[in-house]
Amino acid sequence: MIWDAFLLSLRVTAVATVIILVAGLGLGWLFARARFRGKLLLEVFVALPLVLPPSVVGYYLLRALGSGSPVVEWLHIELLFTWQAAAIASAIVGLPLMVQSARAAIANVDPALENAARTLGSTELGLFWRVTLPLAKRGILAGLVLGAARALGEFGATLMVAGSIPGKTQTMPLAIYDAVQNRQNDVANQMVLLMTALAFFGLWFVRGLESSRRRRPQAESAA
Amino acid sequence: MTTAQRTGLVIDIDVRRDGFRVQAKFEAGREVVALFGPSGAGKTTTLSAIAGLVSPAQGTIAIGETTVFRKGGAGADVNVPARDRRVGYVFQNYALFPHITALKNVAYAYGRAPDAHGKAMRYLEMMGLADFTDRYPDELSGGQQQRVAIARALAREPRILLLDEPFTALDESLRRSLRKELRAICDGMNIPVVLVTHDLSEVLALADRVVVLEQGRVVTEGSPLDVLKRPGAETVSRLVGVENLFEGVVVAASQAEGVTTCDFGGLQMEIPYSPLPHGARVRVGLRAGDIILANPRPVGLSARNTLPGIVRTVARKGFEMEAVVDCGREVRVDLTPRAVESLGIMPGKNVWLVIKTNSCFLIE
After folding, report:
1. What ipTM did this prediction achieve?
2. Nearest chain A Cα to B50, which residue?
3. Residue B98 contacts A where some CB pair is shorter than 8 Å
4. Fold of A7-170
5. pTM (2 decimals)?
6. Is residue B295 part of a domain?
7. Model confidence pLDDT, tens digit, residues B287-305
């Protein structure tokens, strides 16, 4: 049961992390660099899951993925109570952390550097890849780890859209709840320790990113 | 078709940006043109438009034989993206990529071309930086950073070179030597160079022609000396802050006394000591506000230059008055209306001009 839940959690988190990376980079760039109507509205919308109760997010997702929704009616994709639904729920809840971090990191890159790349013949995608991304790397990685950790720990929204089917949609947080309900204390203990260790190393990594100086020695003022 | 259209830059644009408007119209051949004016005049915006980083509301920009921008004129609209304009741009503060070495900064211009590093190396060698290729920008001095930025711009094999305040980040002693280097590079390239600056000495040292911008408009243009000397170019003299400009020769210099004596067509003046040889040609600037008028001849002054002259005209200039005094050549002097009244300054009156040595400054 522990390993089923652990492997499922890894799978859900991995997929959620990929979604968070792609969507978070795109939205972070958009919020840092683009100007468009309704930008503020979109920013608030993306950040909402951070402050809403997960059950509320889960309820919206239930309506969005459930019968009668365009996803089911037009695309004929049934996602409710599958691990994919759990991945989507985890991604949506983890995304705001990534977006905030990526936005700040990208906004911090001097636009003059991007302009320099343009005059040197770079395409927009090329300069994003070769200039913006390397310079914003640390903030983006930190946001990604925080978002992934949040996705790994997702409980409420996942329960709403994927249920808690052992071996199918029961991720670690849900399994822990189940174990406690069934008074399987040693199972709960092991899983809690595992989760704590993961969270601990995730934060350790982020903290290291934030405080790490470049390893290159600074030149003594060359003249 | 003008010469500039065939070989250089033709620009006539109207840029609107965040409630501020720049209308710039000028041409440049294969020469160094300085865009000169106070901050906020639209100099950098004009450069950005040439590079394709800013789109004008309307106008045309042609580099060499290619129209890179056209909107609202005859023919179809054109807007070549910045990456395809082949413009060498040296940004203010250089905008070197901080995460890659000097060599990779220069090689950036070649993308993934197979011999990118070899080509980049040649430009770094040309700029005397062969030993610094593996340094990151923050491990280079200001002067070295500037040279990497120039190497990177030249590596683009540009059709035009744009320099935005290339010396502001450097200290004074470095400026002088790098100015000479830059002038030599510009001379060797045979493409138009547009230099943005608000420093008069840079204009005089580097530019073949100067275009003066103020509040988003071209106020005047011409050769640097012509523009500075042109009578009635009020904006220019105000921008420059030098109403009097003399050309002459050195007749004596004494390091011990700290003065160099110059002859300006019969008018002898002492200026601060400068190690120039006898007979060297000099240009000396003198602000109208730094000159004292006296009558009768004052005695016991520390000021070393006391010259007799006759007042030609007295005219209002804002809250002040400006007198033109003839003492072998015309000198402009600023006075308050009260001083004009109490001294009885009027055309035809004999006066003495009192000028401190330190108010005369050598323009290089």
Report:
1. 0.82
2. A119
3. yes
4. MetI-like fold (1.10.3720)
5. 0.76
6. yes
7. 888 899 988 888 888 888 8
